[in-house]
Design a protein that fits this description.
Length: 73
């Protein structure tokens, strides 16, 4: 268990930041090979996949800024 609030904040910002870039990467992959995502029960339409992953990226980016303390570089 993490007791230091600075470490917890850093880990939250890092985790959601990584998820932000992963969702952007999945958005790019969805434009190249959309049939890959049918295995995960997602739509086969490239535009719908792009919208899904862009929305996920915005949500993760919002969570990064939510947990980022004031004055964080």
């Amino acid at each position: 268990m993490i007791n230091d609030p600075n470490t917890l904040t850093y880990l939250l910002v890092l985790t959601f930041g990584i998820l932000f870039f992963v969702s952007l990467l999945l958005g790019i992959v969805s434009q190249i090979k959309p049939s890959f995502f049918v295995w995960f029960k997602l739509p086969n339409n490239r535009f719908h996949l792009l919208i899904i992953f862009i929305c996920m990226a915005f949500i993760f980016n919002g969570l990064v800024y939510l947990f980022m303390p004031a004055g964080y570089p």
